[in-house]
Amino acid sequence: MKAWQVVELGEPRDVLRLTDVADPEPGQGQLTVRVLASPANFPDVLMCGGQYQVKPELPFTPGVELCGEVVAVGSGVDGFAAGDRVLGGSVLPHGGFGELAVMDAATTFAAPAALDDAEAASLYIGYQTGWFGLHRRAGLRAGETLLVHAAAGGVGSAAIQLGKAAGARVIGVVGGPEKASVARELGADVVVDRREQDFVAVVKEETGGRGADVIYDPVGGDTYRRSTKCIAFEGRILVVGFAGGEIQSAALNHALVKNYSIVGLHWGLYNRHDPAAVAECHRDLTELAASGAVKPLVSERLSLDSVAEGVQRLADGSTVGRVVYQREAS
Question: Where are the strands (E) in 176-321, listed by range?
Fold first, then answer.
């Protein structure tokens, strides 16, 4: 089969090679699937540079989530059969940026009929992260104000839709007019172009000086520090990631005097600590997709030949929504 492989560490366009590799076989508890679609995620970018907490042995095929069609079932697997359309995470080194991939049956779910292949592939990491972050960790309630950073990206766009579905008032922060238009289309009640406006001032104005009840921050660094200036009394700042490149330190005295919480989220740990909750989350997301309340924003559908450039655009911060490798119809 053909697959993209990271052969050395560096920028995605420099280290990804499209090559012929052996078809992967499923191990115990695993599935081999024909890849129907696989989105580019920030962990894929970081793994290309050796900067992610997971460091696969070279060479490996990235693509950490996907939608696929089951072609082979490993020993000890129940509930899946050849031909099933599924979504979930890949088992590296056999990721989604190839014609075939390997998945753990325990973290694989039926793909919602309401979504096409590229949309279904994008429902896993970003939407599960948003669901656990907003509901399980931050306890978002109807009527509260939710501030979402990087609101036109894959993770941020999911948080907008999930926040609106929960009955929150959503303020989205983006960089540039094109991304602002996307955030409005996704349903944000207020959109802030950080290149033109100070999001702290806008949040205070929109909330009568109270601040945002929940702040969803996948950026970190100065974005986090400025967020502490517009968090409400008993607000929750949700630390989702550090896409801005800086892992900031938290001033705990400030959290004390302003009475807010700093809440961390490592969604992947739920697969080990509470897999039943992950399954519950998928059921809820499937229902939301069926009702039209959530629909992953797929901005680019890539052929297999174009994957490296698509991952590089994600690394460069020039993408909007999800950039997804989608298998060409046969």
Answer: 190-193, 212-217, 231-239, 261-264, 298-302
